[in-house]
Write a structure and sequence with these properties.
This protein is mainly β and 128 residues long. The protein has 1 helix and 9 strands, in the order αβββββββββ. The protein has a domain of 75 residues: Jelly Rolls.
C-alpha cells in the first residue's frame, strides 16, 4: 500500500518520545512530539511550512515574538520564515503532531528525550 493510515489522535496521546518521525513523503512529513512540563522546542526558523495540532496538555506558541496560549484541539500554521517556539507551560506532557512541508528530518528519526536531539535534516529518502 502506498501512503500512510493511522489514528493520529491515539498515536499522539500514546507517544512517549520527544520526537518520532512516522512517515516521510517527497513533499511532506508527519511527526509526533512530546514536551515535558517546562520543556520547549527552542526558538527556530524553518525554510518550510509547518502545521501543528495539540492533543494534550497546555502551552504556548510564540510566533515572531507574539505569544499564543495553546491546549488540546488547538492547531497552528507556521509559514516559512516565521521565528517560532513551542513551550509546555502545564503540569503534564504537551503532546502534538506536526506536518512539515517539505520534510524537515531524516525518515525514521526517533529522539526519546530532548537531550537525545541531534540535527538530522531530511536527506531526500522517503518512507516508501
Amino acid at each position: 500500500m502506498k501512503g500512510y493510515l493511522i489514528n493520529i489522535e491515539q498515536a499522539t496521546k500514546e507517544n512517549t518520545d520527544y520526537r518520532r518521525v512516522l512517515y516521510t513523503a517527497r513533499n511532506s512529513q508527519l511527526v509526533l512530539m512530546r514536551l515535558r512540563p517546562g520543556e520547549e522546542i527552542g526558538e527556530e526558523v524553518h525554510h518550510l511550512d509547518q502545521f501543528i495540532r495539540f492533543e494534550t496538555g497546555e502551552g504556548k506558541v510564540v510566533l515572531d515574538g507574539v505569544e499564543h496560549a495553546v491546549a488540546a484541539d488547538t492547531a497552528v500554521v507556521i509559514p516559512q520564515g516565521t521565528r517560532h517556539n513551542v513551550i509546555n507551560t502545564g503540569v503534564g506532557d504537551l503532546k502534538l503532531y506536526t506536518v512539515y512541508s517539505p520534510p524537515e528530518h531524516k525518515d525514521g528519526t526517533v529522539h526519546p528525550a530532548k537531550s537525545d536531539e541531534r540535527e538530522e535534516h531530511f536527506d531526500g529518502r522517503t518512507t516508501e
